[in-house]
Automatic annotation (TrEMBL):
Catalyzes the reversible transfer of the terminal phosphate group between ATP and AMP. Plays an important role in cellular energy homeostasis and in adenine nucleotide metabolism. Consists of three domains, a large central CORE domain and two small peripheral domains, NMPbind and LID, which undergo movements during catalysis. The LID domain closes over the site of phosphoryl transfer upon ATP binding. Assembling and dissambling the active center during each catalytic cycle provides an effective means to prevent ATP hydrolysis. Some bacteria have evolved a zinc-coordinating structure that stabilizes the LID domain. It is found in: Cytoplasm. It comes from Candidatus Uhrbacteria bacterium RIFCSPHIGHO2_02_FULL_57_19. Its EC number is 2.7.4.3. Residues 129-164 form the Adenylate kinase active site lid domain. This is Adenylate kinase. GO terms for cellular component: cytoplasm. Pathway: Purine metabolism; AMP biosynthesis via salvage pathway; AMP from ADP: step 1/1. Monomer. AMP binds at residues 43, 64-66, 92-95, 99, 162, 173. Keywords: ATP-binding, Cytoplasm, Kinase, Metal-binding, Nucleotide biosynthesis, Nucleotide-binding, Transferase, Zinc. ATP binds at residues 17-22, 129, 201. Zn(2+) binds at residues 132, 135, 152, 155.
């Protein structure tokens, strides 16, 4: 029997390398709900060379998180109020309790999915991560290689190591995540909308757990 339940707003929480970008992308294609990821928007703006893009690049190239006021500007443009009523998957936002509170003012969250992985596993995975330089699709040299080798399966764009995936930048981001984003998990737990999933499992296993959590049929 096919479930009629549709989700409106789902967000992914997890360390860089937890697979949340990949899971968001799979879910998006399967159910036709768009993903809004500040990271992808940042890369788009940087590639366009816009004023916002140049500002973002100045932080990213140092492995720093983009400051809240810039993040807010991005979300204001990319996540209009009506999008929350139609359905959206958020990947990489909110990153702090302050942002979660801001989001709650105009976007009710159905489900917050936390993908749990250890720092050690995050580091191992991040080293193999590649991103399409054109459309921002995520790949991994061993876990999700492109069927077209060094080119993107979707658009043929060249795959690259992300600018912010240098070892020093990764370590800084892990520390910031534990300090600022871990409390977001507690925030959604208290709201009763948190589901935690072991992110060290295979991609398909994690995907099935997400589908079950959403009450959707395969
Ligand atoms: Zn692409």
């Amino acid at each position: 029997m096919k479930s009629n339940r549709r989700f409106k707003v789902v967000l992914f929480l997890g360390l860089q390398g937890s697979g949340k970008g990949t899971q968001a992308s799979i879910l998006s294609r399967k159910y036709g709900v768009p993903v809004i990821s500040p990271g992808a928007v940042f890369r788009e703006e940087i590639a366009k060379g816009s004023e916002l893009g140049r500002l973002i690049a100045s932080f990213v190239s140092q492995g720093k998180l983009v400051p809240p006021r810039v993040m807010h500007e991005v979300m204001r443009v990319k996540l209009p109020r009506n999008r929350c009523g139609v359905g959206v998957i958020l990947d990489g936002y909110p990153r702090s309790v302050a942002q979660a509170r801001e989001l709650a003012r105009f976007c009710p969250i159905d489900l917050a999915l936390a993908l749990r992985i250890s720092d050690h596993e995050a580091l191992r995975r991040l080293r193999g991560r590649r991103v399409c330089s054109v459309c921002g699709e995520n790949y991994h040299v061993t876990e999700r290689p492109s069927r077209r080798g060094r080119l993107c399966e979707r658009c043929g764009g060249k795959l690259m190591v992300r600018q912010d995936d240098t070892p020093a930048a990764i370590s800084r981001r892990l520390r910031t995540y534990h300090k600022e984003t871990e409390p977001v998990i507690d925030y959604y737990r208290k709201k009763g909308v948190l589901i935690e999933i072991d992110g060290e499992q295979a991609i398909l296993t994690v995907h099935r757990a997400i589908v079950r959590a959403l009450g959707l049929n395969k």
